[in-house]
Amino acid sequence: MINFNGSLLDKSKAILYSNNRAFNYGDALFETLKIENSKINFLEDHYFRLMASMRMLRLEIPMNFTMEFFEAELLKTAEQNKLESARIRFTVFRKEGGLYNPTSNQIDYLIVASPLTILVKGTYLVDIFKDYYLNSDILSTIKTTNKITNVLASIYASENGFDNCILVNERKQVVEAINGNIFLVKGSKIKTPPITEGCIKGVIRKQILEIVSKSDDYTIEEVEISPFELQKADEIFITNSIIGIQPITQYKKYKFNTEVSKDLTLALSKLI
Length: 272
What we know:
Blueprint: E1 2-4, E2 7-9, H1 21-25, E3 28-36, E4 39-40, H2 43-56, H3 67-80, E5 86-94, E6 107-115, E7 125-134, H4 148-159, E8 164-169, E9 174-177, E10 181-186, E11 189-192, H5 203-213, E12 219-222, H6 227-230, E13 235-240, E14 244-248, E15 250-251, E16 254-255, H7 259-269
Parallel strand pairs: 7-8, 7-15, 11-12
Antiparallel strand pairs: 1-2, 1-6, 3-4, 3-5, 5-6, 8-9, 10-11, 10-13, 13-14, 15-16
């Protein structure tokens, strides 16, 4: 079952038509959330990130669209699919009408729940995707449905036997991975690109920044990262809301440790 504007429908039912703005213009936002044992991880962070992104895109937020309403709709969808643990995608898009200039800023939303399968791989190979760049502007920091660079990078990774790719911006600085934020470890120092580089304002990224800022063992820096620094790192890892932390074990001929990733995974699990 899928949830379209609060109505639970069979997933085979057509609800998106030829003048849908998400389809025609990428005029949409999405959140990917994890439910474990009927509890939504980091609900508040996801909700406020979505609200901020909707305001940026001038989407009209309905009066009833509270965090309690958001939570209830997500859990309702999971329950109707008989899932106590689930991967949830919440997509919100401007109502049909208009060309580039919409006729309305009112919204529709779609919620899809799928079984939660988490696999943190022991061997994880990456490369840099150089064909196209992300832009280091504020629109790149929100989760719109315009993800063609990520799609092309995923195809490149699949064709070349990589598990993921690292994306760079127009200045050829490291931004993020295809599906999450990226962190580098050198000694006791942990680095991640700042939002100004064009990376997503990741929910797990936020948690890692908070965990490390309170740590006596590590320090954290939000700083520009050159691709050359990848070769010098002791450890590199990726974060997202479904996997949590995925260590990178190899980039080109360089191999990395995973000890810090394991420590932070344990610290993250205590927050959930």
